[in-house]
Every structure is written in C-alpha cells, then in structure tokens.
Design a protein that fits this description.
It is built from 7 helices and 14 strands. By secondary structure, it is an alpha/beta fold.
Length: 278
Amino acid sequence: MNRFLALFAAAMINAAGAAQAGCGESADACAVDLGTYHARVPDGPVKGAILYLHGFGGTGNGALRPNDWVNTALNRGYVLIAPDGLPYAEGRGRGWSFIPGRPKLRDEPAFLSAVRDDAAARFGFSVDQVILSGFSIGGSMTSYLACGRPESFAAYAPVAGGFWRPHPTDCAGPVRLLHTHGWTDSTVPLEGRVLRGDDATDPQALMQGDIFYTLRMWREVNACHQLRADRYVTKGDFMRRAWDRCSEGSALEFALFPGGHVVPEGWADMMLDWYEGL
C-alpha cells in the first residue's frame, strides 16, 4: 500500500508540473487538486460535454485517441473530458478506487466533480450539460457515482461495467441512465465473475456484480413499479429496453449488442440520441 501511495503522489506531482494553461491540447494534462485529466474540443459550437472514464490499465489521454465514438461525439459538438485514474503498481496503468470493502485511495466523486467544474470553466460549457460515461471498470465507477450522487451529472451512460459484489442495497435517485453491454462479453459478463477466490461462495472472493441486479436496482430507484419495460427496439445494431412509467425526471434504458468487451461501433450516436431526446 505504501508503495502504491508513493507512486500515486509522484505521478500527481509530475502531472501537475506538466499541466499548462493550454491543457487539453495534444498530450498536455489539465490539473485539479486530486489529479489530472485530458480533453478534446469540437471545432464548431459546443452542445455539452462527455466526461469519460477509461477502463482497467488505461489513461485519460489514451481514452481520447481518435476512434468511432470519439470522432462521432466531437462531430456532434461535445467536449470530451477523460480523467486519469489512480496509477497501479508495476506499471500496469490506472484505475478507479470504488470496490466495496477495499480502501478508498482517493475521493473519486470529489475528483470527478472538480474535473467537471474545471473543464466547464476552461472550455465553455455548463456543468449542467455533462454526461458521465465510462468503459469496463470506468463503467463501474460511473454506476457507483450514479448510485451515490445522481444529481452530479445530467445523465449516466456506463458501457460494459456495473456494480461489484456485494451489490449496493439502496441508491439515491431518480437517475437518468443508459447501460450498454455486449451479449458475449466474457471480461465483464452480464452475470459477473469471480476474479480472486475459489468461487462465488468464498466470502473473501473479489467478484464483479450482476448487470441484471444492477438494472433491478435502477428500476427501484426510479420507481418503475410496473417492472417490465415499456418500449423495445429490436432492429439495428442494438437491442434496447426502456422504462418510461417511472419517477418524474428519471430515464432508464438498457442496450445489448452482439459483441464482447468493447465500446461498440455506433454507440456514441445511439447514446447521444437518447440523451438529447430526454
């Protein structure tokens, strides 16, 4: 643990020293009190922002390399903000401190709120126009923030990541959330998996959570008392279920796609159409 904290402190000092007034351009990092982030800005008018949390072992800068979803979001007028997770030991990249029962090495909600506010001031959008999203373990961090502080962001859009075991027993709400997951994801399966320990009966095991439990929790939080979905979309690249008869101000949708542990092609358009239609 001491070695981890020493690496973290050194990384934060180095990153803060590298951050410049022109941060967000090229690989330059923007610095806030608890860490650093990267950004890309669209060429035209700004509609809002997506604060995107990288997966296990990634970095904020790496998450914003040109690809299908990044290019789509920029073309649609969204500033892209990608914070840096905490550095792992042995040079294994970065991640997020949220797993139940594990020490919290950083106040992640405070850090992400600080990134949101700093980026809004730098790049000219309202803090009320920010979607929180993330992939894999970044999707899990997104889900936990939606559970604990749903008012922090305009909407939540986790991809391939949800709660871990032991699952939360209650969340704040209501929440506006679109969860996207691959049908054949074997890294974060829909049912979860055991990462360390003998099996799911081991009380010391480290286990991913069940996405179906996650959806049940969101239905309870949003008072979707009819249980079944109200709308289905079964054509195109995504199979979607939406719950509409719920609390005022809430939104809940689940999108499956026929693939594995990836951000699927077409996700940004699908997600932004959902968000802009709320």
